[in-house]
Design brief:
About 50% of the residues lie in helices and about 15% in strands. By secondary structure, it is of the alpha/beta class. Strands 2-1-3-4-5-6 form a 6-stranded parallel β-sheet, with helices on both faces. Helix 5 crosses helix 6. The mean pLDDT is about 90.
Length: about 350
């Protein structure tokens, strides 16, 4: 896998196995960390990622971040103690922007340990002042796409793009055929990976499902979750005709869906890489939306659009049910365009 090539080279020139300590908390970060750790282990590295520190639900949004600050501090202290005890060759931070930025600075005194940040903070969106902190705290920043690496280098940061691991991970599912007929189509619903996102988005998606079935009663809704246990829990509260799928099985279902309605995040990039037509949305309190518009320098928030800097997929902030339905009606017929986008993204995200 291209993104771990730098670490593999370090491992080959070492007399002993390279020891890599992983620090993350976000579920999307855990997804990437899992893919990276698999490749590092294949290369002979020793990956240190304590099980007790793999499960967490990092908060989203300004208010949620303040509420979760105490939990984050406790987790950071545990990670710092673990790193100082183990003394790894590499400290690999994965996502979890602010806490990992601080950890890089706090661990700067550990001589002989390289500090690497995979999926660093999105300085292109807001908070460019963090560039100084990253420059002091990390030896290398590994970015998710080329445009981000180029931007960070313009800020004199040691940023590189070495491939996005999702491309290779999703390749086996790319050519899954859609078996549904025009009379009965499959609509994938993804409410987000974090519980806080799911609680905000499920009501909206249920409203969309009901409105869509009034128009197309033969279509079926499938709810997709990052974890199998989440899908099992969700199935208990869904309509009898709805299905809930979690874990790796979600990729095959998503690849074969005629349309996906997706909460913005890693899932919308996965959907795009699988070639499935999608409508991306996100919901936030009005105050947070106002703050984002004041502080952020962004035209897009859906990752496929951010990566290629174009309006490749429809994105809606704080939509109503009717907004989702109208976008879905015009998007579900664009399977050819979705596949072309997938091919373009795969080329863009492969070194």
């Amino acid at each position: 896998m291209p993104h771990s090539s730098r670490l593999r080279r370090l491992n080959r020139i070492s007399e002993k196995a390279l020891r890599v300590y992983i620090s993350t908390a976000e579920r999307s970060g855990a997804l990437y960390a899992g893919l990276i750790s698999q490749e590092l282990k294949k290369a002979g590295a020793q990956v240190i990622w304590p099980a007790a520190l793999q499960e967490s639900d990092a908060p989203v949004g300004f208010a949620a971040g303040i509420e979760g600050a105490g939990e984050a501090l406790v987790r950071m202290k545990r990670i710092e103690r673990g790193v100082r005890r183990v003394k790894p060759d590499v400290f690999l931070a994965v996502a979890w922007s602010e806490p990992n930025t601080i950890l890089g600075l706090r661990l700067k005194d550990m001589k002989g340990m390289r500090r690497v940040f995979f999926a660093p903070p999105q300085l292109w969106a807001w908070g460019r002042f963090r560039a100084t902190l990253l420059r002091k705290g990390y030896d290398a920043l590994l970015c998710l796409y080329p445009r981000e690496a180029a931007f960070l280098r313009s800020l004199r940061l040691p940023a590189h793009f070495a491939g996005n691991p999702l491309v290779e991970h999703l390749t086996p599912y790319f050519d899954v055929k859609r078996k549904t007929s025009r009379a009965s189509r499959s609509i994938a619903l993804l409410a987000g990976s974090r519980p806080s996102e799911q609680s905000r988005h499920k009501t909206l998606l249920k409203g969309f499902r009901d409105a869509w079935k009034q128009l197309y009663p033969k279509d079926r809704a499938i709810w997709l979750f990052l974890r199998e246990n989440e899908a099992k829990d969700a199935q208990l509260s869904l309509d009898a005709l709805d299905k809930a799928i979690g874990g790796e099985a979600r990729y095959r279902v998503l690849a074969s869906a005629d349309l996906a309605v997706v909460a913005s995040g890693t899932a919308c990039l996965e959907t795009a890489l699988l070639g499935t037509p999608q409508v991306v949305f996100y919901s936030l309190p009005r105050l947070e939306v106002a703050l984002i518009r004041m502080l952020a320098r962004v035209k897009h928030f859906a990752l496929p659009n951010v990566i290629i800097a174009e309006d490749a997929v429809p994105e809606l902030l704080n939509p109503h049910v009717g907004d989702l339905v109208e976008e879905a009606k015009s998007t579900i017929c664009k399977s050819k365009e979705a596949r072309e986008l997938a091919i373009r993204l795969r080329k863009e995200l492969t070194t």
